[in-house]
Design brief:
single chain, mainly alpha, 39% helix, elongated
């Protein structure tokens, strides 16, 4: 079997907007574009941590109902309830 080289679409010089860039990278792998990689000197600071907590199905459904009633996300609702219960002001 012959070793066929994958044809790589040319990388555009620029994208019209973020949506166009997203559409391109949704259908292309960075694997074929290594020659365009440039090293960067970046420092990333983690300023917040998110923790995962397991709850029963019934508790989750209750949280979902509460969140919907307040037009909030479930994580935001959990954070609000726990802060109140634990007397943690934000």
């Amino acid at each position: 079997m012959a070793n066929k080289k994958k044809v790589i679409d040319p990388l555009p010089d620029s994208f019209e907007n973020e949506e166009a860039a997203g559409e391109f990278w949704d259908t292309h792998s960075v694997e074929g574009y290594a020659e365009f990689f440039e090293p960067v000197d970046a420092k990333i600071e983690i300023t917040e941590r998110i923790y995962e907590v397991q709850v029963s199905k019934e508790v989750f459904y209750g949280l979902q109902k509460e969140a919907n009633a307040r037009h909030q996300s479930v994580p935001k609702t959990v954070d609000r309830i726990l802060r109140k219960e634990l007397s943690l002001a934000k």
